[in-house]
Each structure stands twice: as C-alpha cells, then as structure tokens.
Amino acid sequence: MSKKAIKVIADTSSYENLSSFDCIEDLNKTVRKYRDLIKASVKRSDLKGRLIILLELLKRHSCKQIGVSYMCKNTIANIMELSYKTVQRLMKKLEELGIIRQIAMKRKKSMLQTSNAIIIQPIQEEVSNKDTVEKGDKCPTLFKTKTTTLKQKINRLRTYETVIQHNDKNSFNDLPVEFCSDRIPKEFVKLMSYYFNKAFQIDEFYKCYMLVCDKYNQQESYCINIALDSFRQLIRKMKRSTINNPFGFYTRILQKKMKGIYIRSQLLNN
C-alpha cells in the first residue's frame, strides 16, 4: 500500500490557518478541561502524569500560532527525558482521546517531509459556536484567507498587547519576579527569587511542582515544604556541577520525594 502524498507546506500561513483558537485564554481553558479528562479517563498514574506533562509542553510551544505546535518528537523526547518511541505512544494516546491531531508537513524548498503540525483540538461544544469551514478533500490550509482568519489575527494582537506590558523588551520572559502568578505561595517565590530573577522561571518551577502533585494525588498546599526542600537540593547540586535542565532535575527530585510519601500513605491505608 503506497503512502499518502503530503500536500501541506510548512509555512506561517499554513500554521495560522490550522489554528482553532481566537486567543491564548481560550487555549488555556481548553487545556485545563483536557487535564481533567486525562485524570478521569487514564488509570495508570505514570501514564497520566506523562500525558499531562506532554500536553502542557505542547501548549507552551503553541502560542505563536495559537493551538498549533511544530516541535519535532526528538526535541520533545529530550525535554521530557523519554525515548522517541515513548513520545510516539503518548502522542497516539492524546489523539485517541481527541485532544490533538497531527498533520504531515513538507518543506517549501526541498518538498521533503518535516515535523508534523500538532494541533490542540477545541472542545466540541466550543467548535459549534464558530463559523465552520466546509468539509472536503482539501486541507483547510489550501483555502483562501477568510474574515474569520482575519478576526483571529486581530484578537491575537489584542491579547499580546494586554498580556505583555513592556518597557524596553517585547517579551513575557523579561518580566521580573514581581509579576509571578498570585496562585504561587509567597514562600515559594521568596526562596526561588534568590537564584532566579524572572517571573517565567518561577512559574515553570511551580508548574513542575503542580504536575508532580497531580501525578501522586497530593494537594499542593500540603506539600509546599517538600517543594522548598527539593529546590534547596537542586541549588546544592547546581553549586557542585552543571545542570543543563534545572526544571527537569527539580521534577525528578520532587517525584522521588512524592513517591515515598505516596507509598507510605498506601501502606498506612492498607
């Protein structure tokens, strides 16, 4: 059986036309609902945690064309410290749950296959409120730009202007510690601000903490001391040797500590 020809060219217009969200807030709301879906439908705790981490990773890398990521699986495997085959299986599981879909892309110059476009799907009830494109054999990227596409671009620009209030640099990553999210405990921010002076860095550490809490069914407010102790352990390690991925190393420390608590609680309950 011959392979199906790849018709979609990897360029900015193609990725923008594949986007199904009007703004980043809609994307965030959808991802939160999908996290609840994963928690409810996936029984294995390790698989559940990996799927949530993968979904969050795809979300963070799909803000330029909202909801569309074009990270290659090798890059994802390196970030998550998993094998390529494992990432493939996780992607397939997200597709089975209706959370994402993948579209094969080819380079404009060489016409050879490149990384798939990974599209986070909107919730079905949200799709019904949008102007839908007529279904056909052609990919939506081949249709001409319509009014709905122009509205999406305008909404994105408005979102970026309200979210990113800049003085010298037009980047969210340049915001100082004072712009950390209100949901992050003050003691967490205070300790980490001694070593990391950007708000997005502290946000990332707290996201790692929340994911590990979800994996082992622990309440975030009860385990904040474990999060602080794990960070101190990370700093001690960084003082002794080079850590290329402090977020990944911090997550591994947390997982080791949380796993011990989880096992002890299970033994006590039994």
From TrEMBL:
Protein name: Helix-turn-helix domain-containing protein
InterPro entries associated with the record: WH-like_DNA-bd_sf (IPR036388), WH_DNA-bd_sf (IPR036390)
